[in-house]
Amino acid sequence: MNLDSQITRDLKNLSGNLKYKDSQTTQNLNSQNSQDSQNLQNPQNLADSKTAQTARDYKGSTDSTKAQSKFAHFLAKFGIDLSQKSSIFFIGFLVLYYVVLVAFSRYSFNLDDIWMWLDIYENKPNYDGYRPHIGRFYPLYSMELNMLMQISHSPYLFFAFNASLAVIFAFLSLAILNQVNPKSALNKILISLFMLSIGFVIVFFGICYPEKLLVIYLSGFILCSFIIIKRSNYGSLGNPPQNLTQNLTQNLTQNTPKNPKDSAQNPQNLTPNPAQIPAKSTIIPSIFGIVFLNLSIYLKEPIFISAFAFGFFLFILSLKLRSKALKIYSIFIGISCVIYALLYAILILGKVQKTYDRYTENTDIWSVKIIGLINYILNDGLIVFLLSGIVAYRIYRIVLKKEKIELVFDGLLVAGILYFLAYLALGIFETYYLLPCYIFSGASILYFLIQKGYIKNLFIKLCFVAGILGFIATSLPSGIYSIVNLKAQGVQFHNLLDFSRAYLSENPHTDIYFDGTGRGREIYAEWYVGYYIEYLNRLYGIYDFDIKTDSPNGADITATDSKSKYTYKNSLEVTTSKSRDLVILNSTTTKLADKKYIENLLKTHTLLYKTSFPTMPYINLKSVIKYANKKFLKADSKLLGHENIFKFPLNTYVFVVK
After folding, report:
1. Which of 162, 248, 294, 457 has its CB surrounded by the most CB atoms within 10 Å?
2. Which among 179, 198, 322 is positioned nearest to 241, based on CA atoms?
3. CB distance 202 to 101 below 8 Å
4. Considering the chain, what percentage of its residues have pLDDT values greater than 90?
5. What separation in angstroms does the CA of 517 have from each of 51, 325, 521, 548, 551?
6. Which residues contact 330 (CB under 8 A, 6 or more apart)?
7. Cα 493 from Cα 561, distance rounded (Å)
């Protein structure tokens, strides 16, 4: 009965609604007919009516695609138009880069990463940026790690953070290059290639590098500087390109058009009239610029030298432009650098016991320096040859040809070359140390090559070819190898530890040999053996085993540790493996551990375990030169390293002696 009553009520309501809608429809039709009649009498009303309807339709469409429009508008600020193939490629590259960087996140051997992971898992904050005894003062070092470890110890969190920074860097760099080069497709390609270079990969695929945040802060500083320069009526001095800081200034202000295609097709329409820009428009970029600069200064010591030089050039520019805002900004740059220098003098200079290096008392320093210089030439030829060549050519043009100094771009060139010279003087040659040189001087190099046409000069052409050959033949393939190897090595080490825990729990007192790894860090991977012990002890709670070596001791042997219970560390004894001993073989071996070597090893050993995440062979110009020497010249030299040139095997193996 209740159900019948409910159905009856629903039918009545439905009938009433239909009658109401019919009535409403009739009224709308009468109203529309009346409106059409008026429109026929007055064509202007018809036009207004259609305009209003179009506006309503557009509003509905805008509401339905609001998120997409905002995203496209955001991308347009950086010169990215998704209707262009180059933009689609760039966004696709960044997405892939992000995914690869985060995938298979493990603790891995990327310089100091491996011991910092131990501190992270044990929740020990790191303050390694203040070491007066070796002259180190970069106190903001690892602060981000100290904060992230309070959230989680998972490597996925740390590498997701790195991946986000890499994407931010890409957009900042694109915004900078777009200011000096209108060929946005070229800018995107250059940034993508740079993100695959060995220095960039090492830094962002690891957690211990201050350069990771440094390149972000430096890019922000330069970007803010460009905005301030543009808003200081910069336009004629040194004949800068018409679009210098034009796009970014416009895109970050209210003058940006709503249609992204308009900005991509006609950037000149976005040009604000500097005379109409109020003085306060420089306040926000000035604040951010100084903040970014100071964050950079306290992440790496030589930054203050380069920044001071650039600030000096900006100060001269402010006098020529009679710009109070730029003058104040440049003065604050100088003050920031002087404050750091004073702090360094007070807190560090009187306490330095030895300069920072990685030598031991037995290190052949000259061979290490020669190797370092060769690595700089091959990995950073764009700095060694191209930046240095352009600086030399600019000096020639200014001194002998009486050209005017282009204070912005020459200032950035000087900043970049000073940073390079600082590390040459210090004798430190790591593959990632020159990254700030690219940030300081990248826009200037592009400006002088393209806008000023220096690429047509024979001397600059030779410098360019030398630099680009080094990048293509060494830095790029090394970067791609490092991406694969760091991921594979992390997974392999993790899996090796899992296997070792299970095996050693059931087989205590086992002696372990790392095939082709002895003592002496210039030859052998001491770090791998050392942290294998550390991780088994501290994270896995496994202690009952011993590590020995059958490889001859190298000349460069660190001091033995009498407190260690492991033979590898507490003595210089060289022994031979015996039955039931374990032998671990991976790509850190000094032996040419190719397929044939493993087949021979199986004649006297039994394979217990093999990882399933292979790395790739190490192939670039350096490895090819070494191989050619071993194959044809057969000249033995410390500069050419050991036999395992291509870093075989591609997996980690565990054997037991028969």
Report:
1. 248
2. 179
3. no
4. 68
5. 80, 60, 10, 10, 6
6. 311, 312, 314, 315, 317, 318
7. 24
Place of tokens 């290490």: 368
DSSP 8-class letter at 609: E
Residue 293, pLDDT above cutoff 60:
yes
**Burial (Cβ within 10 Å: 0-12, 13-18, ≥19) of residue 59:** exposed
277 has which bridge partners?
none
In the predicted model, what is the mean pLDDT of residues 587-614? 96
Q: Give the least confident one: 79-93, 487-501, 623-637.
A: 623-637
Write out the H or E segment, with its range, that includes residue 118: helix 113-121
Structure tokens given for 561: 């540790």
CA distance 518 to 522: 11
Contact 645, 630 (CB under 8 A): yes
Residue linked to tokens 């416009």: 250
Instruction: Supply the pLDDT for residue 362.
Output: 62
CB 467 within 8 Å of CB 382: yes
Handedness of CA 279, 282, 284, 290 (dihedral sign): negative
Nearest to 528 by CA among 114, 203, 120, 104: 114
Q: Which phi and psi (to 5°) does residue 200 adopt?
A: -65, -45
Q: What are the pLDDT digits (tens) for 168-182? A: 999 999 999 999 998
Mean pLDDT, to the nearest integer, of 115-133?
A: 93
pLDDT tens per residue, range 47-71: 454 445 545 554 555 555 666 778 8
Contact present, 217 and 299 (Cβ < 8 Å)? yes
Q: How far is CA 445 from CA 410, 437, 452, 463, in A?
A: 10, 11, 10, 12
- Residues 6 or more apart from 11 whose CB is under 8 A from it? none
pLDDT at res. 223: 96
Give the tens place of pLDDT for each residue, 370-384: 888 989 999 999 999
Place of tokens 């970069």: 138
- Identity of the residue numbered 207: I
Angle formed by the axes of helices 407-426 and 435-446, nearest 10°: 150
Which residue has 């011991």 as its token pair?
Answer: 115
* CB-CB contact of 311 with 330 (8 Å): yes
Q: Whole-angstrom Cα distance, residue 409 to residue 390?
A: 11
What's the rounded Cα separation, in Å, for the pair 304 and 324? 23
